[in-house]
């Protein structure tokens, strides 16, 4: 963090003006209700907003506690449940809303006693205490308009101060923080998502107590700034020390994980945002927390898992920084480490924090959040530590020291288990260990069906260290290398030299095994802070918006640089390049023509070139199938991206919690569509494969082989189980039965495939 802060921004000055007035209100001897009445008046006046209202969580519902502009008789009368109406949605999802026409929002709920029908625009932010929403601060205006970013940032800053005021006045709803379940002594089973496969037993150890910020308004801005400077210096020393001493145990192939982590620690953009929050009048702790809250809200709005997980790394550093600046270095690792076999409990973890623990005693990790592509998962997998994520309200069910039995493959953790559960767990653990040994023995065996059909098994990758999985799994090559990862974790647009180094390292590590590079897929929900993409950040449906090849064709310079980097990196070798999100043949032709032109440019400048370039496309947009026959003469290979394809086929956002499990990959809709793709490609020179999560599951992979797919690019963890399935499968028998299965699907298609597999003794690893 530089020692010469820029002058305060307009947003900081605006927030500081309001905070100065709020500080006077907080210091006054008025009662809590009187203070809140003054607060809504100040905010409404400073933001020139006709309505300003504060809702507080009381007895499980959001009660209108103070307002300027709505009818006063509605105060303490109007109540909204969590998730009910716009206010309820903000509190339930801990999100910010900014609408020019509130009534048009599907969650709008009209309350006639408030008189809010006079107002059109609406903006609201959650009031957060101990990571939970304890209220909502919102403003409204009679004219339809979106509130400026400066106004939203001011509201978010004020909400932090309100959190302190509400807590000091004992207005925080105690019902919202009840831990009655924690007093339950009975055995429980919690469910979650498998992130790293494995089983482990140990006592519960909480990673870190939450640091509650008690003082938000600064008395001396410069003193607070210097406290943050000192904390940044100490944090960077810790990260540098960890980077130099970290032993991942696999030849350092995870070096980029820590390097990316270091990049965030030294990111000037992050430190600048904290500086701006201090300029607004916040204490050092509150400024870090203010930026951290913004990060959390952005994470909830991001569909792309890679970008979301990079922001988890930033939150990990925020936690570390706030502990340093507050003088509370209170993680379990820092307070004496693990004294016995332990299961670590955390809301989330960064890779550096995980590395602080003694891996000899760390038997597993349970996260309230977490996802498959997070940095910490990469490190945990290298350490051999099982991890389960998406386990809600763990603090309400688990106490420090409870015995836990973690079975991430089953997505369960048993809390205070009975003896019978412990005996069953031990028996399953023994079977699991034998299963892992058997899968490891398959590494060097070919992926060939019982009737002699070879299947090409490849892996998906996005990090330099992912290449190590080729040797660990025995995969044929990399069927999808996501080049956008380098863009998503970088603070600036990666230069051609940086891109070239990455691509060359990947090719060198792969050796003679093929690597298919997908050109950069950014835009839409994968917004880059250093790249202005116009209105794409405001898209209501970014997954189907201005992204991937659409954006790259408009930003030709971006694609030209990547083309040159790929070609120079692949000099003397075959380059496989694939274009994402192709909707019509002309898009593919335009991208291919750009690469051809760049190859000619490099040749004219006497640059070394690939011996051959193979061009491919991803089939993710369902409509492309209707013109696929026109593209086939110009394609070398085609990869079906089942993740996007499925959500587009069903018009169902795969990130939506209510829809994530609703539509099955094995449904007739998906399987018949894929069968049409196979028939269309059949007879051409085009190599057809699937790269997506669907192919990494043994049952789904079996169905894909049944319709004619013979190349799968999957997660490294899926290679062993899928290879075991392949080697136990009579593919001829399956393909003979597939027409009948597709023609007359049962009401339970998944069960239909499971029954077939059981009847034919296919190894699904169950």
From TrEMBL:
Any one GO biological process: phosphoenolpyruvate-dependent sugar phosphotransferase system
GO molecular function: kinase activity; metal ion binding; phosphoenolpyruvate-protein phosphotransferase activity
Top EC category: transferase
Annotated EC: 2.7.3.9
Subcellular localization(s) per the UniProt record: Cytoplasm
Catalysed reaction, written as an equation: L-histidyl-[protein] + phosphoenolpyruvate = N(pros)-phospho-L-histidyl-[protein] + pyruvate
Cofactor(s) needed by this chain: Mg(2+)
Family affiliation: Belongs to the PEP-utilizing enzyme family.
One GO location term (cellular component): cytoplasm
Domain of life: Bacteria
Residue span(s) of domain GAF: 31-176
Chief location of this protein within or outside the cell: cytoplasm
PROSITE patterns reported in the protein's UniProt record: PEP_ENZYMES_2
This protein's UniProt keywords: Cytoplasm, Kinase, Magnesium, Metal-binding, Phosphotransferase system, Pyruvate, Sugar transport, Transferase, Transport
Protein name as catalogued: phosphoenolpyruvate--protein phosphotransferase
């Amino acid at each position: 963090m530089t020692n010469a802060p820029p002058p305060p921004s307009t947003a900081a000055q605006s927030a500081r003006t309001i905070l100065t007035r709020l500080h006077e209100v907080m210091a006054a001897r008025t009662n809590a209700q009187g203070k809140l009445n003054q607060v809504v008046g100040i905010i409404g006046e400073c933001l020139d907003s006709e309505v300003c209202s504060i809702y507080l969580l009381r007895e499980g519902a959001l009660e209108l506690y103070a307002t300027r502009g709505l009818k006063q008789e509605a105060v303490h009368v109007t109540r909204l449940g969590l998730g009910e109406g716009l206010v309820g949605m903000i509190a339930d999802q801990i999100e910010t809303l900014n609408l020019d026409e509130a009534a048009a929002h599907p969650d709008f709920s009209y309350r006639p006693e408030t008189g809010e029908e006079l107002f059109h625009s609406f903006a609201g932010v959650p009031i957060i205490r101990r990571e939970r929403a304890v209220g909502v601060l919102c403003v409204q205006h009679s004219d339809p308009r979106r509130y400026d970013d400066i106004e939203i940032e001011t509201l978010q800053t004020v909400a932090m101060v309100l959190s302190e005021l509400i807590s000091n006045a004992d207005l925080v709803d105690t019902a919202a923080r009840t831990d009655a379940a924690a007093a339950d002594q009975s055995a429980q089973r919690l469910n979650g998502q498998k992130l790293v496969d494995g089983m482990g037993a140990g006592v519960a150890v909480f990673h870190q107590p939450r640091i509650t910020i008690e003082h938000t308004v600064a008395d001396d801005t410069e003193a607070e700034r210097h406290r943050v400077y000192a904390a940044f210096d100490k944090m960077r020393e810790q990260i540098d020390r960890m980077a130099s001493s970290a032993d991942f145990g696999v030849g350092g192939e995870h070096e980029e994980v820590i390097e990316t982590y270091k990049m965030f620690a030294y990111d000037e953009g992050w430190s600048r945002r904290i500086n701006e929050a201090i300029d607004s009048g916040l204490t050092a702790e509150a400024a870090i927390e203010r930026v951290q809250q913004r990060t959390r809200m952005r994470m909830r709005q991001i569909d792309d898992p890679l970008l979301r997980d990079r922001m988890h790394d930033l939150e990990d550093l925020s936690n570390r920084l706030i502990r340093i600046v507050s003088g509370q270095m209170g993680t379990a690792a820092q307070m004496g480490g693990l004294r016995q076999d332990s299961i670590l409990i955390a809301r989330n973890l960064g890779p550096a924090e995980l590395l602080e623990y003694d891996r000899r005693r760390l038997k597993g990790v349970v996260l309230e959040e977490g996802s498959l592509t997070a940095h910490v998962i990469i490190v945990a997998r290298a350490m051999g530590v099982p991890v389960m994520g998406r386990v809600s309200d763990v603090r309400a069910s688990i106490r420090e020291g409870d015995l836990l039995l973690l079975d991430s493959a089953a997505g369960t953790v048993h809390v205070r288990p009975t003896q019978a559960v412990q005996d069953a767990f031990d028996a399953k653990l023994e079977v699991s260990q034998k299963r892992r040994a058997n899968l490891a023995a398959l590494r060097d065996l070919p992926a060939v069906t019982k009737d002699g059909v070879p299947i090409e098994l490849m892996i998906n990758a996005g990090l330099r260290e992912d290449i190590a999985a080729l040797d660990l799994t025995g995969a044929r090559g990399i069927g999808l290398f996501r080049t956008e990862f380098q863009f998503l974790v970088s603070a600036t647009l990666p230069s051609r030299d940086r891109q070239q180094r990455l691509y060359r390292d990947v090719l060198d590590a792969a050796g003679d095994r093929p690597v298919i590079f997908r050109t950069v897929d950014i835009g839409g929900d994968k917004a880059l802070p250093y790249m202005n993409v116009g209105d794409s950040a405001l898209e209501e449906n970014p997954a189907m918006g201005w992204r991937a090849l659409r954006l790259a064709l408009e930003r030709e310079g971006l694609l030209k640089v990547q083309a040159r980097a790929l070609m120079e990196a692949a000099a003397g070798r075959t380059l496989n390049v694939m274009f994402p999100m192709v909707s019509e043949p002309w898009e593919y032709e335009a991208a291919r023509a750009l690469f051809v032109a760049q190859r000619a440019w490099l040749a004219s400048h006497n640059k070394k070139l690939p011996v051959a370039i193979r061009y491919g496309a991803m089939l993710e947009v369902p409509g492309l199938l209707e013109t696929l026959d026109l593209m086939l003469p110009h394609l070398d290979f085609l990869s079906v991206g089942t993740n996007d394809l499925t959500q587009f086929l069903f018009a169902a956002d795969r990130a939506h919690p209510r829809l994530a499990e609703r539509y099955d990959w094995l449904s007739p809709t998906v399987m018949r569509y894929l069968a049409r793709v196979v028939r269309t490609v059949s007879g051409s020179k085009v190599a057809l494969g699937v790269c997506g999560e669907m192919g990494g599951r043994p049952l789904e992979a079996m169905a894909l082989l049944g319709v004619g797919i013979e190349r799968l690019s999957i997660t490294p963890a899926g290679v062993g189980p899928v290879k075991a399935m392949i080697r136990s499968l009579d593919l001829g028998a399956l393909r003979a039965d597939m027409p009948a299965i597709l023609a007359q699907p049962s009401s339970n298609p998944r069960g239909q495939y499971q029954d077939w597999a059981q009847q034919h003794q296919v190894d699904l690893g169950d």
